[in-house]
Amino acid sequence: MLWDRGRLWNSTFSLNSHGLPQPLSGDALASSFTARVQHISDIGTSSTVYVADSDIPRGNPAIAVRSDATVRSQELEIPAAFSPLSKGYVGYAGAFSGEAEAADLVLEMCGVKKLLDCNDPSSP
Questions:
Q1: Residue 29's closest CA among 123, 114, 118?
Q2: Contact 104, 28 (CB under 8 A)
Q3: Partners of 80 in beta bridges
Q4: Do the strands 32-41 and 80-85 form a parallel or antiparallel pair, or are they unpaired?
Q5: Alpha-carbon distance 107 to 1, whole Å?
Q6: Mean pLDDT, range 12-25, rounded to an integer
Q7: pTM for the whole structure
Q8: CB atoms closer than 10 angstroms to residue 103
Q9: Whose CA is closest to 33, among 49, 52, 12?
Q10: Is the separation of the CB atoms in 48 and 17 below 8 Å?
Q11: Which residues on neighbouring strands pair with residue 83, listed in sequence order?
Q12: What SS3 state is found at 110?
């Protein structure tokens, strides 16, 4: 596995519509969020957690994750990835400004399940 650094840019991101890497759960993650993110590239589509809703600035468009084989992993710049490695997993979350959605992603990658939503007034 060789992941490479991509660009730093602001955008809105959505969960991979073709499914999340196992054992991540979409129920624990925001369906989309906006943040300034350090992207990574050379990621296989099966490791992609979030994809950009818009093109990467200054050319080199973000390629939407598709199920067909025409998308090469080198063409992707993504904000979050998760992949099996040896007897465990390795994850990457490029958001670094304290976004709640990024924190939820890191917790999910670590296997920590969120029991209560402290921001939800209806939670006990």
A1: 114
A2: yes
A3: 50, 93
A4: unpaired
A5: 23
A6: 92
A7: 0.73
A8: 13
A9: 12
A10: no
A11: 90
A12: coil
Rounded to 5°, the CA angle 85-40-55 comes to 140
State how far Cα 43 lies from the chain centre. Answer: 11
What distance in Å separates the CA atoms of residue 94 and residue 101, rounded to the nearest whole number?
12
| C-alpha to C-alpha distance for 95 and 79, rounded to whole angstroms | 7
Token pair 């904000």 is at which residue? 79
Strand intervals (E) in the chain: 4-15, 32-41, 48-52, 77-78, 80-85, 88-93
Q: Which residues pair with 37 in a beta bridge?
A: 9, 95
Q: Which stretches does DSSP call E strand in 31-95?
A: 32-41, 48-52, 77-78, 80-85, 88-93
Q: What are 85's two structure tokens?
A: 């490695």
Q: What is the pLDDT of residues 22-77, one digit of tens each?
A: 999 999 999 999 998 988 888 888 899 998 886 554 444 444 444 333 344 435 68
- Whether the link from the prior residue into 84 is cis, omega within 30° of 0, is no
Strand order in the sheet with 48-52: 77-78, 32-41, 4-15, 48-52, 80-85, 88-93
